[in-house]
Amino acid sequence: MPKADADGLRLKLSQQIIELCRREGWTEGQRLTERQLAQHFGVSRSPIRSALEYLVNNGAIARTEAGGYVLAVKDVDLADVATDVPPPAEDELYLRILRERFTGALPEHVSEANMMRRYDVTRSQLLKVLMRLSEEGFLVRGPGNGWQFKEFLQTVAAYQASYEYRLAVEPAAIRSPNYLPDVKKLRRLRKAQEEIARPGGLGEISGISQFDLDAELHETIAGFSQNPFFVDAVRHHNRLRRVVEYESFEANERMEDSCAEHIQILDALLADDREWAATLLTRHLILASESIDVFLAEAPSRPAVRAATH
């Protein structure tokens, strides 16, 4: 494998390992094995070993006397670790393309040749990102080597419509007859929200980390429905809004209220009052849709768009 590809895979797996630890609620001292991680991510043990060693150097993971690996940070610190792991070049190109399309710097129809020149990348590098964008519903292939962007949250109307979609899906997931919350995960999510809500907490976490914690909370709550369609719907919507909202989480005046609302929803689920939790979640999303109070990137051809915080 070329060195650039190996480096990209190592960084990607490093991010995925940290995300897995966050999602599972693992904390300091949790044992990590090459074999289990390789099976989980569908790769060989060699790139897993490389990613683990990278995280050892990063301070997130420690080696044991027996030569194994354990998590070296508490679960509440994992969001900060994630921001310390630089995104692979593929992720940087992915976000740059989405941002430039959102601002209008990229037209609706693009060619591979023009994009290779614009971003100074090889066709192989570009195609990986274009295929990823296609799989996630942002792009469709056009004739020849052309591609066409599909509409995503680029207007106030589209953004408000996305909240109508969330209001139809997320409370329904909580009301699912098969809903089975994991108390340990609920407590971990609550602890993370408390860390943000405490005095000065918002100033200690990046906008990216705030967004990721928010997305994780909504996806986890939907996941307790045991219904993959609910989970896929929430996850897909999080991908759509990710490019729009990363920067908006940096200074959003509603973040403090949003954290308090998250805690109320989690408390209702911990008390096994699902109907109240669904009601609180509905109110939370309505308030978010009405508080379009953070400017997003402006495009020359359209007015500034403002985003809500959930």
What does this structure look like?
The protein has helices at 3-24, 34-41, 45-58, 78-84, 89-103, 112-119, 123-135, 156-174, 183-197, 207-223, 228-245, 255-270, 274-290; strands at residues 31-32, 61-63, 69-71, 109-111, 139-141, 146-149, 294-295, 306-307. It is mainly alpha-helical. The chain has three domains: 3-84, Orthogonal Bundle (Arc Repressor Mutant, subunit A), CATH 1.10.10; 89-149, Orthogonal Bundle (Arc Repressor Mutant, subunit A), CATH 1.10.10.10; 156-307, Up-down Bundle (Four Helix Bundle (Hemerythrin (Met), subunit A)), CATH 1.20.120. Helix 5 (89-103) crosses helix 7, helix 8 packs across helix 10 and helix 8 runs antiparallel to helix 13 (274-290). Mean pLDDT is 80; it is low at 293-309.
Structural topology:
Layout: H1 3-24, E1 31-32, H2 34-41, H3 45-58, E2 61-63, E3 69-71, H4 78-84, H5 89-103, E4 109-111, H6 112-119, H7 123-135, E5 139-141, E6 146-149, H8 156-174, H9 183-197, H10 207-223, H11 228-245, H12 255-270, H13 274-290, E7 294-295, E8 306-307
Antiparallel strand pairs: 1-3, 2-3, 4-6, 5-6, 7-8
Question: What would the keywords be for this entry?
Answer:
310 residues; mainly alpha; Arc Repressor Mutant, subunit A; Four Helix Bundle (Hemerythrin (Met), subunit A); three-stranded antiparallel β-sheet; 13 helices; 8 strands; 7% strand; disordered C terminus
State the gist of this model.
This protein has 310 residues and is mainly alpha-helical.
Total number of beta strands: 8
Roughly how much helix do the residues carry, as a percent range? 55-70%
Main pleated-sheet profile: 3 strands, antiparallel
Mean pLDDT reading: 80
